[in-house]
Amino acid sequence: MNKEEFGTFLKRGGRSASAIKRCQWMKAEFEAFLQQQRGGKCIEETEPEDLEAFVAWVEREPKTSAKTYLWALGYCFEFVENDDMRELAGLLRAQRITRTPFPLKDFRGIDPDQAATLAEAGIRNVKQMLKAGRTPGDRQELADETGLPLDVILEFVKLSDLARIPGIKCIRARLYHDAGVDTIEKMADWDPAELRAMLIEFVERTGFDGIAPLPGEAAFSVARAKGLPKVVEY
User: Fold this and answer.
1) pLDDT for position 101
2) What is the C-alpha to C-alpha distance for residues 209 and 188, in angstroms, rounded to an integer?
3) Residue 52 lies in a domain
C-alpha cells in the first residue's frame, strides 16, 4: 500500500495534517503486525480474523482500546476499496465507543403508541427492556401492567436482544427479526455466507425496505452472537 498515494487520498478527503500523520503511523503499525504475526500479509490481503487478531494484540494491556487504530484502518480499507473490511473496522470501533442505550421508539416497524406505553412504565431503551422482560414471567407481568399483548412485549425484547450486537439497531434488527433470525442464539447457529444468502433472498422476495448485510458484516454479527452471554429466557 503506497504511503504517498494514501496520504494524497486522505488529504483529498479533507483530513488535517495531524490526522494524516496519525493515520500513516497506525497504518505502519498494522502493516508491521501483518508482516510479523500474520504470515507477511499486506493490507490488501487482510481478512476479518487478521483484523480481530490485531485488535486483540493492541488491547492486550488492561484499559487499552483499539478504537483509534480502527478509525485509521477504516480509511486504509476504503483506500484499497475493501468495503467488507472497512465496514468491519467501523463495527469494531462502534463497539468500543460508549453510547447511550438505543431507544425502543427508533426500531423500524414498531407501533409508536406501544413504545409510548412502555415509556410511561419507565422502559424507554433496549437496556431497560432486557431487564424488564428477561424471563417469561417478567414479560407476563409487564403485559399485565401495561395492557400490551404478550407477543408485543416479546417482539420488543427480541429486537432489544439483537441490538446487543454492534451495528444491529433500527433497520438491521427489523430485518433479522422478520427473516426469522430473531434471537442471539439463532444468529449464532448460522454460517455467515448462508445467512447473507438467506437475507438477500428474503429482501428480494418480500420487498423489505433495506439491503442485506455485506459479507464482513454478516461474519462479524455471527461471531459476536457466538460470544455473547445469554441474557433472555425464551
Assistant:
1) 87
2) 25
3) yes
Q: Which of 38, 70, 95 represents a domain boundary (last residue)?
A: 95
Copy the grid coordinates of residue 114.
406501544
Q: Within 10 Å of residue 232's Cβ, how many Cβ atoms?
A: 21
> Based on the domain organization, do 84 and 156 belong to the same domain?
no
Whether residue 223 is found in the same domain as residue 108:
yes
In a shared domain, residues 48 and 113: no
Residue corresponding to grid cell 493492541: 58
How far apart CA 176 and CA 196 sit, in angstroms, is 10
d(CA 234, CA 136): 7
3-state secondary structure of 124: coil
pLDDT in tens, 122-167: 999 999 999 999 999 999 999 999 999 999 999 999 999 999 998 8
> What pTM value is reported for the model?
0.67
Per the structure, the complete domain to which residue 217 belongs is given by 104-227
Helices 48-58, 17-37: axis angle to 10 degrees equals 110
How many domains is the chain partitioned into structurally? 2
Instruction: Name the helix (H) or strand (E) containing 201.
Output: helix 192-206
